[in-house]
Each structure stands twice: as C-alpha cells, then as structure tokens.
Design brief:
Chain lengths: 111, 114
C-alpha cells in the first residue's frame, strides 16, 4: 500500500516568517494530495488540496506544490500568525479510494 | 454542512471486552474510514468501506473488524480489547465522486483499555 512520509515532525517559526512542510509518497498511482490542520482537541480539517494533474495551488497565505516525478509535495505558509499553530497532516489518496496520512508536523508560531 | 458523528467522545473498557464504536454521516457519502491517531504516528488507516457491505483493510486491521449494513453508518469492532488498543479513534467519510475527495472527520472517540 501507499506510504507517506512527512518532515519535519516539529517546526517552530517566528510570527511573520514562512513555514514549509514536506511529504513524500511511494505509489505513483496516487492522484490526490490533501493537507489537513488539526487544532488541539479538534478534528482534522482540510485546508488545501491538489490533484495529480496540477503542479501548484494557492489559497491566500497557503500554497501546495506537487512534483509527480519525484513523488513529493509541500505545504507553504507565508506570513505565519499565532493562529496557524496546530498539527498539520499531509495525505495521499490511492485510485482505489483509500487515503494514507503522514505522521504530522506540529507547527508553533511564536508571537 | 457535512456532519459526521461518533457514538462516544470517551470510553473506558476492560481488557477482553468486545467494544463497538459507531460512526454516522448525514451526507450520503459512499466512502467511510476508520483511523487511529497516536502521538508521533499520525493517522493510521484501520479499515475503509466504499459501499454498503464492502470493506477493505488498511494498514493496521489486526484486532479490529468493521460493519457497514447501512450507507450512513460504519462500525468499528474490537473483538477482544487489549491495552495496546488504547488510542484516539477517528471516523471519516467522503464522496465516491471524483469531483470531491475531501474527507470529513468525526470528533473522535478516546478509548482507554485497562
């Protein structure tokens, strides 16, 4: 099955700086790559996603890039704010519907 | 607004007990998933279902079974609970339509096995 690796496991940045989280996947048949944000005590929620036929997608301060050849994708958060502090998960969806998640990155934005 | 609910937020069971975790979604989603979440390990897929009575194993199905008799409901069963199954269990659902693969999560059930 699909294997998703995520780095770093923890990330601390100063407010206003950028944050980058990277993921790699193993199965070239995966076709959808979402990013979820989980605040403390809450359920994961989708913040941005990208499909395999697209190289980059942006939504205000967040962007995702996908390199299909290298089988890796990244989340970029610019102008970070304290409310961006959370655990972020990447995931890869296989064509047969199952979804595999990375181990998560705990992002701390220091004011 | 998609709503995914889970039967309990907190559950305490004894070793060897049979445990049922229920998940219900109200958006007519085809796909439903069970994950367990442990610190440092992320969300690990236990089972998923893409249709009524259909199920597929995820990465860690040992010690678990599932049931999907109705489209809106997906149950996770621990046949004989063990202490290493103490964890947060998250249910999720998604459309089977390629227009949207977004997963919607339930609030989670924190299970403690003593």
């Amino acid at each position: 099955g699909e294997n998703v690796e995520q780095h770093p496991s923890t990330l601390s940045v100063q407010e206003g700086d950028s944050a980058v989280i990277k993921c790699t996947y193993s199965d070239s048949a995966s076709n959808y790559f979402p990013w979820y944000k989980q605040e403390l005590g809450k359920r994961p929620q989708l913040i941005i996603d990208i499909r395999s036929n697209v190289g980059e997608k942006k939504d205000q301060r967040i962007a995702v890039t996908l390199n299909k050849t290298a089988k890796h994708f990244s989340l970029h958060i610019t102008e970070t704010q304290p409310e961006d502090s959370a655990v972020y998960f990447c995931a890869a969806r296989h064509y047969n519907n199952d979804m595999r998640f990375g181990a998560g990155t705990r992002l701390t934005v220091k004011p | 607004d998609v709503k995914v609910t889970q039967s309990s937020r907190y559950l305490v069971k004894r070793t060897g007990e049979k445990v049922f975790l229920e998940c219900v979604q109200d958006m007519d989603h085809e796909n439903m998933f069970w994950y367990r979440q442990d610190p440092g390990l992320g969300l690990r897929l236990i089972y998923f279902s893409y249709d009524v009575k259909m199920k597929e194993k995820g990465d860690i199905p040992e010690g678990y079974s599932v049931s999907r008799e109705k489209k809106e409901r997906f149950s996770l069963i621990l046949e004989s609970a063990s202490t290493n199954q103490t964890s947060m269990y998250l249910c999720a659902s998604s459309l089977g339509d390629r227009a949207s693969y977004e997963q919607y999560f339930g609030p989670g059930t924190r299970l403690t096995v003593t």
